[in-house]
Amino acid sequence: MDDTPGVHADDRRALDRRILSLAVPALGALVAEPLFVLIDSAVVGHLGTAELAGLTLASTVLVTIVAVFVFLAYATTGAVARRLGAGDTKGALAVGLDGIWLALGLGVATLAVAVGAAEPIVTALGASAEVVPQATAYLRASAPGIPGMLVVLAATGALRGLQDTRTPLVVAVVGAVVNTIGSITLVYGFGMGIAGSGLATALTQLGMGAVLAAIVLRGARARGVGLRPHPAGILANARAGTPLLIRTLTLRAAILITVATATRLGDATLAAHQIVNAIWVLTAFALDALAIAAQALVGHALGARNAAEVRSVIRRCLQWGTAAGAAMGVLIAGLGWLVTPLFTSDPQVQRAAAISLVVIGLLLPLAAWPFVLDGVLMGAGDGRFLAWAGVLTLVVYLPLVGAVWLWAPDGAAGLAWLWAAFAGGFVGARALTTGLRARGTAWMVLGA
């Protein structure tokens, strides 16, 4: 029997196919991107400890830059999907082009800052005298790829809004392969050291950005859309992205505060936190793929003025998300004791990580709600609410993490309390705020 009210079984299966056709390729693209860091780590790790430590700091800076500008993808997806749903394909492509032009401008400006401030940045992060030149070399060599990284975000957002998540997947997979070959060749074949790895990443990201932008440009040209930048459209994209930038900054602040608290709880606790966080991030990719599907489908349905379809998409994506969260939670909680030895031989670290994996395993079904509903509200262009909700949830989290900072013991118990505060308190507050918002209709503005 159909478990989605008001939707026949055939309609539900058709909706499931639409959701999965977007979510599965999106998941592949999301997982492919972190392969760049893993590939560079494997290649650079054989150069020496200082080089690997330098890569850790420099890649953290690059990942943070991309995370800050992720609104280029999110804002573009919702706006393009809404235009497409309204039957305005030319307008959808024009919005996508404006997003790409905005990404290019921000990328060039960020590139200049990253090159000029590379050494002060890595020094401020506490790098030793041996690590500073390695981190600086990688950051300066990889910085030219920043415009490409941001164009990839905007172009991917445009293609997702056009209901195409397969093309970004193909480009991401090919990019990972090219980056592997390029990194090995430049590091060892040309003897460039860590800078060779950074240059390979930069060239690959520039190539990926060029390919994805060319695909959007080709579609725009075929429909008679002007390719020149439109200041009004670029400014509109920037305005739409500003609230999402605030939302992203609140999330990054919560993550940084959590890491700082784990550091205070001792070296073993910090090491265990890294294991738990790595597994948490992997689960986040799966749930974020559903958020991307929800974002594209909700934007399309709003543009088509189909409020019933919007509600159907929300219900079904939440059902998929909760089920996926529960399934992953059972695996993580049950297999934690078997997984942690793969990361470390320290029994203290193993125990702390395994106990905290039980904590996040229990809370993963709850985590599905804010992931999916973030996508829903982004697809609706409700960025202002998401910004305020981000600030509110951070305010709620601060006393919880503060209590862990002040009173939690070192070791397994302290880390368990920290993850209960983050996955239960911070993520729970996000689930509550987005859930209450989604239940209403103020965000559901129909039409293009």
TrEMBL record:
Pfam families: MatE. Its main location: membrane. The keyword Transport applies. CDD domains: MATE_DinF_like (cd13136). It is a multi-pass membrane protein. Keywords: Cell membrane, Membrane, Transmembrane, Transmembrane helix, Transport. It comes from the Bacteria. It is found in: Cell membrane. The keyword Zinc does not apply. InterPro entries: DinF-like, MATE_fam, MdtK-like. The chain crosses the membrane at residues 19-39, 59-81, 93-117, 137-157, 169-188, 194-217, 249-266, 278-299, 320-340, 352-373, 385-408, 414-432. Belongs to the multi antimicrobial extrusion (MATE) (TC 2.A.66.1) family. This is MATE family efflux transporter. It comes from Occultella glacieicola.
